[in-house]
Amino acid sequence: MVALNLPVFDCKIKQVEGKPYIFDSLRRKYVRLSPEEWVRQHIVNLLLTHYGYPKALIRTEGGLVLNQTQKRTDVVVFDRQGQPFLVVECKAPHIPLTQSVFDQIARYNHVHKAPFVVISNGLTHYCCGIDHETANVRFLDDFPAFVQ
């Protein structure tokens, strides 16, 4: 896998029938290692180790229904009241973060209504704060701090 613009961590990788799998500490199992999964695992590690997000409040590959279609969010962090706090959309490193990626996370967050969203391909990251009452979006310099 390619080096990312995210902190390196000691990940567990194994081969199953000639295919790489990475250990997902949130789901507590090995999952198929794709370029997108590589980014997702690095983002989760960043949230846990560098920003202090509680492990119990992070969900990966969670389902949602959008326009009567089942979709999956890459990462959702919940606040202590169980409300979505941060939605993260991960792309493979070779995928550019275009307007269509912003549109995708905006559609997903229309359901979740989290105050923060992030898109990342592991090399570039965009963090935004969302005011749902005014529909105002502001770009942030860093990932949002988790309020204890």
TrEMBL record:
<protein>
    <submittedName>
        <fullName>Type I restriction enzyme R protein N terminus (HSDR_N)</fullName>
    </submittedName>
</protein>
<dbReference type="InterPro" id="IPR029464">
    <property type="entry name" value="HSDR_N"/>
</dbReference>
<dbReference type="Pfam" id="PF13588">
    <property type="entry name" value="HSDR_N_2"/>
</dbReference>
<feature type="domain" description="Type I restriction enzyme R protein N-terminal">
    <location>
        <begin position="35"/>
        <end position="144"/>
    </location>
</feature>
